[in-house]
Write a structure and sequence with these properties.
167 residues; alpha+beta; four-stranded antiparallel beta sheet; 4 helices; 4 strands; 43% helix; globular
Length: 167
């Protein structure tokens, strides 16, 4: 996950218009590290496989690879994205699904289990509206695995029946 399409696009430099502006040096460094990790996963997407199962309130997704070093990158990425969600340290602010995931983060429960080849994630909500959002996010992440950088450069539409969060 990253803050905008690569190499160009509306959110390329984050919410504040330029790399790191409005972020502490530590947060800017974390963001850069997360972006680089995401881009590595996108470059190597053909070596990653993902299955998603719809469960009550959300999804169960398993994302794995046969490359042990890439599995380490994948696990680190998921741990950091889980941390960012918990902190509200958003990303892809230009993307409707990602913006809503962060706006509704308090209604989302995320359980990450590391597997020998990657990760298994259960992402659920008691709110049926947020469950729609979780499933949309799962579809988007699958598109990244399938399409790499081309897929990541596109905005993710919200589900037609999703009701956007209000401030």
């Amino acid at each position: 996950m990253h803050d905008g399409p690569h190499p160009t696009g509306p959110g390329r430099h984050g919410r504040h218009g330029h790399h790191g502006h409005g972020k502490s040096p530590e947060m800017a460094a974390r963001h850069a590290r997360d972006r680089d990790t995401f881009h590595e996963l996108l470059r190597r997407h053909d070596s990653i496989r993902r299955t998603v199962e719809t469960i009550p309130g959300g999804i169960r997704a398993v994302t794995e690879t046969d490359d042990p070093a890439l599995a380490d990158v994948l696990r680190a990425h998921v741990r950091e994205m889980h941390r960012r969600l918990g902190e509200g340290f958003g990303l892809r602010h230009w993307d409707p699904v990602f913006a809503e995931v962060f706006a509704r983060r308090d209604a989302i429960r995320l359980e990450v289990t590391e597997t020998p080849a990657g990760v298994a994630i259960e992402e659920v909500s008691d709110d049926p509206n947020v469950a729609l959002l979780i499933r949309a996010h799962g579809t988007v992440v699958t598109s990244f695995v399938e399409g790499g950088g081309r897929a990541a450069a596109l905005p993710s539409p919200l589900p037609a029946d999703y009701v956007r969060a209000t401030a």
